[in-house]
Amino acid sequence: MINIQAKNRILNLYKEGSSSYEKVKREEYRQLFYAIRPYITSNNKEWNMAVGEFLCNGALAFNRFIGLRPNYIDDDMYSMFCEFLASLQSLDGKYQGRTFFFHLGKYKWKIFRECNLLPYDEDMKTLLDECEEEINKLRFPTENKLVCKNLENQKEEIIGLINDIRSGLIKTRIHTALPFILTNTKASVNLKVNGVNVKAKISNHSQGSSLPRTEVAEGSTMTTSAPSKWTTTTCEIDIEADCLMDGLELKPNVILQNKEDNRYWTADYDFTYQVISTIWMYIQQQEDISGTWPPLPTDIHYISYQVSGSQIYDTMTTTNPALVYCFRGLNKPTQHYEINDSLPSWSAYTHQFAKVYAKSGQLKESIFWLNVSVEALVEEFIQKTATSKETLAEIEGDEYKFNTAEEILAEQFPEMKGKVRWPKTVIHTSVFIKLKRAVKMSDKAYLLKDVMKKYSIVNSNRNALFHGKSVDINVNTVEKAFGAYDWLKEKLFCG
Questions:
Q1: Beta strand 265-266 with 302-308: parallel, antiparallel or unpaired?
Q2: Which domains does the chain show, CATH number per domain?
Q3: How much is the pLDDT for 403?
């Protein structure tokens, strides 16, 4: 943004009055701030007043606890808040009172950031001691008794938070519900998540049966003997964790999203999902509860949480940030479909499996099925390319252990091609090798390097998953794999 434009925008906001700042988005605050940062202090009285109001409202816009609550909090938001505060502090005493409020908010935010979902330990003790020392150094203005009283109240709240963490009084209480049961009865569960002591209480609620004229007695539950999408009984879960939680902290996304969706994942849902998944797995191993599916991140539709000790420090109800709710009109015309084609190919069928798993947060399962799909796709390409039994036999024939060695040798030393007598050790002919042979024989030979590169992207975690190793799969990995798959399908079957 050109500096003069930024200056004029800030001056106009000041002239329009306090309500004008409500229309400014955080991104505009960021752009304006960096545009005028070298010119914050000036001899011009009107500019000093305008930039002071701008910095105050900007600090409010980025503050975690004051003003409009954000959907999530990332490191950039915290950094911008600190930047606005530091610049505001450089101005004269007119903003001193507000600066103190922001300073106290900064310490509270720092505690929430550094102590988020962690057990109390020596590192946390050191942090809290340092924060308390810095807070006690603050000397509030005494000329305005009301401002001073408000500052003292806020200070007491933060000191109370520090003491509650130290003494083990701090608790995060979470309430949510699932569209299926975790246990056959009411239950209480004690567990640890990342070193934090957690208690969970589960209560079930019968929804009746999908079958007509079937009733369930009050207080009873009903399930199917095998997993089913029909909801017969739901459950409510109350979780109590011996820690502080900043529920809006941004976490890596857990589902593959459409490009137009702005989906994300936050600490409250991440932690709750960990608790629920752990409980489900344990109880299934102990009792093999019938009719239940593995919990998905998208099964948690809402969360209410409260952070409290001797007083309440934070409370919020949120909907699942990874979900987008779609509403469709009731008066749309009836759709009619004619399915005259043959059944979908196995590659198309398994590709749909992969998409569903990716969009529900089951990323390992998604990569698993995408690899099944790409291997089916390769098989379809081989059948398309092999115009005779001889060609097919050549593509699928034995692979010798030292064939690659011959290729490498010939590439580096062309004069040695065919001169080394390699052992005829037969090994399993991989899908990779079959694809490579088929591409060389096809009209796509010019794409060989790109084809093998894209296949390797899809295939990169295949062996680990297929052979039972624990692999960390993130959304970025899944997105790249789907992109590579789509490229292969387009290039191998075009023309």
A1: unpaired
A2: 3-167 (no CATH), 171-211+225-319 (no CATH), 346-493 (1.20.120)
A3: 64
Instruction: Provide the pLDDT for residue 418.
Output: 75
C-alpha torsion sign, points 474, 480, 486, 489: negative
E strand or H helix at 7, and its extent?
Answer: helix 3-16
> What is the C-alpha separation between 461 and 47, in angstroms, rounded?
58
The answer to whether 235 and 178 are in contact (CB under 8 A) is: yes
Residue 371 in this model has a pLDDT that exceeds 70:
yes
Asked if pLDDT for residue 212 goes beyond 60, the answer is: no
Cβ distance 88 to 99 under 8 Å?
yes
Neighbour-count burial for 37-61, b at 16+ CB within 10 Å, e otherwise: eeebeeeeeebbebbbbbbbbbbbb
Which stretch of DSSP H or E encloses residue 440?
A: helix 431-441
Enumerate residues 6+ apart whose C-beta is below 8 A from 3: 35, 36, 39
> Where is average pLDDT lowest: 9-23, 48-62, 96-110, 321-335?
321-335
Q: Would you report the helix, strand and coil content of the chain in percent, each value rounded to 5?
A: 55, 15, 35
| Predicted structure pTM score | 0.83
